Amino acid sequence: MEWRRNSPWFALIVLAMISTVGFIDRIVVNVLVEPIKNEFGLTDRQVSLMGVAFTVLNIGVGLVVARAAERVRRLSLIPIGTVLWSAATGLCGWAGSWVQLLVARMGVGLGEAIGLPSLQSVISDYFPPQKRGTAISVLMLAPALGALIGFMGGGWIAQTYGWRETFLIAAVPGVVLGIVAWLMVAEPRRGAHDAMANSDDVPPVSAVLARLFALPSARQLVIGSAFAAMLGFGLNYFFTSLMIRQFNVGLAEAGLYAGLIASAPSAISVMVQGMLGDRLGAKNPAAYALVPAVCLLLGGPLYALAITRAELGPLLVLVSIATFLNFGYLGITFAALQNLMHPRMRATCSAVLNVVYGVASAAGPFLLGWLSDHLAPTYGAGRGLVLAMAITGALYFWAGVHYLLAARRYGADLASTRSAG
Predict the structure, then answer these.
(1) What is the CATH number of domain 2-189+202-420?
(2) Which of 194, 269, 347, 410 could hold 66 in an S-S bridge, CB 3.0 to 4.6 Å?
(3) Boundaries of each Major facilitator superfamily (MFS) profile domain copy (predicted)?
């Protein structure tokens, strides 16, 4: 048992599974948009408020918890948060009104604010800097795997049993994994692989913000990744709706397509870009920004072309390729930013980024829903959503430009933070 408790790869697998469950509980609402919209009589803009409800408590509480995580045992916070958000997911299935469902989604956001900010900090203490690109990319497989399970499993369960039962079933794995993490994953020593870990003092939030937003490369990485995240959350939120409205497929079939496209290409891309970053970054640290830059610059225009195809087959193939290019930035970006942080800044860094990405996750679906509603009177509900998604997808190019700017300064910024300690 003891070797397992201190095994970096065992810890990584368990925490990656917890992160995956968190993403399932976050994303499963995407496949339930149509049945929830129909039951409560909502517009696209209104139903997108489930993302806003999730964010309300998530971004504020996450930062407070992260500051505590710099001082206390992180492997206590992670299991508590996991069980809490899983219970709140179950409560979504018992919601008797639209308002009750929004309140339950706020509970999911609260639990994730407690359980998730420490994950990257723990993994960064288990793995040395030259392996963090790969390790954190494994951790960041969670969105891809969560999308696969959430879309495919959620779509099938919702069509077979109902949307309420989908929430109830999704709540179970988190409770189990929370107990496993509590009993079987050891708390690693902070800064075990970092020469700059020469003090137990916790730097102030201002120092974390300075590294994230004053360092030119970090600032560009945050802006670029936040923009890409906003686009991705919006496109994933309405992809099943597009399948149903434009191609008249069933809920389970739409969930199958959405799950496969959002999971397999992005999972492969996250690992490929993370490993490329570690390999190329050994000689040129700028690779941690340059690799995702090239992919995003190509992926944005391709997505706009793909989503406007009139036939389902070509659309799915081209969207899969665009997804491979547009979602691989996740792991390599987090690794690049964690390497810029002092060991006792990392949980706070994750929480600050969670605030940024939380706003992005709420804004993406809302803005895309607003654009779809705006275009629907002229083009119809189906074609209006297609055009809204095409415009949104094309903007990945903009995110790629920010990564190019980050690549110009990343090497110098990394050297300066390491010398400063």
Answers:
(1) 1.20.1250.20
(2) 347
(3) 11-411
Residue 312's H or E segment, with its range, is helix 312-326
DSSP string for 139-173: HTTHHHHHHHIIIIIHHHHHHHT-HHHHHHHHTHH
Residues 103, 74, 10, CA angle at the centre, nearest 5°?
Answer: 105
Q: Which stretches within 32-128 are classed as H helix?
A: 33-40, 44-47, 49-69, 74-92, 98-115, 119-126
Residue 220 identity (one-letter amino acid): Q
Exposure class string for 9-20: b at 16+ Cβ within 10 A, else e = ebbbebbbbbbb
Residue among 71, 199, 140 at smallest CA distance from 353: 140
The answer to whether residues 20 and 149 touch, using CB atoms and an 8 Å cutoff, is yes
Output the pTM of the full model. Answer: 0.71
What's the pLDDT tens digit per position in 332-390? 898 889 888 887 787 788 778 878 887 887 788 889 989 999 999 999 888 999 999 99
How far apart CA 406 and CA 275 sit, in angstroms, is 19
Would you say 324 and 263 are in contact if contact means Cβ atoms under 8 Å apart? no
Q: Nearest Cα to 252, choosing from 152, 358, 175, 330? A: 152
CA distances from residue 366 to 44, 122, 164, 361, 394 in whole angstroms, order as listed = 8, 33, 23, 9, 17
